[in-house]
Amino acid sequence: MITPNTPHPRHSISQTIQSTLQISTLSLLLCLCSLVHWGCKDDGRHKDTVQPTQQDNQPVVNKKKTDKKVILFYGDSLTAGYGLDDSESFPSLIHDKIDSLGLQYTVVNAGLSGETTSGGLKRIDWVMKQRVDIFILELGANDMLRGLPLAETRKNLTEIISIVKAKNPEIKIGLCAMQAPPNMGAEYVNGFNAIYEDLATQSDIMLFPFFLEGVAGNPDLLLTDGKHPNANGQIIVANTIWKTLSQML
């Protein structure tokens, strides 16, 4: 028996369905609003910074906007910190030194293991798309180890320096001197070692003395491959480079 105050069963089911649909619709609208709000916040965040990209096996270059001047180390595995944590590489140690002194500079490590002067020439345009105030060039060791023609090494280094200057005429450039071991033969050794001092003089840029001085040939300061500085060796390298780099700041 249905009393006058009791809703009709069909009417009650209809009301329940209608209420459920209203709640579902409201929930959907709230979700959509949340997604739109989150998306707007994300867009605003990405407008402030440019995310670094990886191209053709090149090292990631930090393109985050900054008011600090940029020191870029451009080289091979010696710069990249081969076999070590990023924090142990000499560019990272120099960055720590700069921070401890409160200097308004940031450091970018654009080292790439296995890089030759030819490879460096090919990727220099991409690397120089960012702001660079001080450019430190460390290349040539792999050319020497492969016995590449000296004229080719000299030509590639010269072109890299020219391109960097063209990108920013006000930039300060430093060239890290490299040395060939005696077993390469006197003629090659003398010719290779002379490249760096000649280019520094001709291009009117800062010459960094052989930065592996005191490290090369010392097994206690090298990885087991006998070529790359270990963590302790990197500390010595950083101190050697800092002596010249500090004059450029």
Topology, number of strands: 5
Helix content class = 40-55%
Major sheet details: 5 strands, parallel
The secondary-structure element order is: HEHHEHEHHEHEH
CATH topology: Rossmann fold
Strand content: 5-15%
Strand order of the largest sheet: 2-1-3-4-5
What can you tell me about this protein's structure?
The chain has helices spanning 9-48, 77-80, 90-101, 117-127, 141-145, 150-167, 186-203, 231-245, and strands spanning 69-75, 105-111, 134-138, 172-176, 206-208. The protein has 249 residues and is of the alpha/beta class. The chain has a single domain (69-248), classed as SGNH hydrolase (Rossmann fold, 3-Layer(aba) Sandwich). A 5-stranded parallel β-sheet has the order 2-1-3-4-5, sandwiched between helices. β4, α7 (186-203) and β5 (206-208) form a beta-alpha-beta unit. α4 packs parallel to α6 and α6 (150-167) packs parallel to α7 (186-203). The termini are far apart. Mean pLDDT is 82; it is low at 1-58.
